[in-house]
């Protein structure tokens, strides 16, 4: 067998795995933790006919993170195409259009919860509605959520929904307004973000007014031109520091909303460069790289951007939030 060691670590999870002579799981923690993980581990290995996987759990935050690590490890080692899908609080492992395993929460799920109230909702896979009509933003979220087994819709799929006025004075207020209002109107799980560029020498402007910096109906080009005009007399790059900020809010009817935030530091260039992205991406110099955000591929941007960081934070707490009343 290979001697390759697989590992994953974030703030709440730390897993190590290798393939050896037999299945085995060890972990730090009490008996309850050990028994829960043993049950989950052996359920998966039995369902997937895996017999040489050895795992050590130094720290864990959610069963989703644990299963996600195991699936990634098995896919890499055995060249499989397993997928982990979230559905109404359950976790499904699929491959080649087949369901191989279903992991249910301890309290179980009613048939109505799992399949929906009618045949129209009897579809596998949770859907998250992104509260935007911006296809560029939706494309980024679709890439980020797709590998987590979530289907992504946006407001263009619901043309009759009213526009929600962004009257808040902070990013969180605006994101909450959109997410919670649309969730109540659609009875769906809704993610809204309010993101913006904050330029230090401009006192944090354009901030929550980033999308309409040059006026109510401003285009990306007009906003970029306005920003360059405001910084026309700021010549030293060290004085052109800025950061993108995003606040994500996930709302679901009769549930406390989930909120995460993230920042992405950089500078404002003197001329726009790059063809990718949207908004202020052509002017935002990423750290010390010398590249603008618009010169990065979608994959590169998703790894380090404010939105990418926020979604990673969201996924750390999303499974446990989804399973709470």
UniProtKB/TrEMBL annotation:
Its EC number is 3.6.1.66. The active site is at 194 (proton acceptor). InterPro entries: dITP/XTP_pyrophosphatase, ITPase-like_fam, RdgB/HAM1. Its cofactor is Mg(2+). Keywords: Hydrolase, Magnesium, Metal-binding, Nucleotide metabolism, Nucleotide-binding. Substrate binds at residues 132-137, 195, 278-281, 301, 306-307. Mg(2+) binds at residue 194. It comes from the Bacteria. Pfam families: Ham1p_like. It catalyses: XTP + H2O = XMP + diphosphate + H(+); dITP + H2O = dIMP + diphosphate + H(+); ITP + H2O = IMP + diphosphate + H(+). Binds 1 Mg(2+) ion per subunit. Gene3D superfamilies: 3.90.950.10. Pyrophosphatase that catalyzes the hydrolysis of nucleoside triphosphates to their monophosphate derivatives, with a high preference for the non-canonical purine nucleotides XTP (xanthosine triphosphate), dITP (deoxyinosine triphosphate) and ITP. Seems to function as a house-cleaning enzyme that removes non-canonical purine nucleotides from the nucleotide pool, thus preventing their incorporation into DNA/RNA and avoiding chromosomal lesions. Homodimer. Belongs to the HAM1 NTPase family. This is dITP/XTP pyrophosphatase. It comes from Streptococcus porcorum.
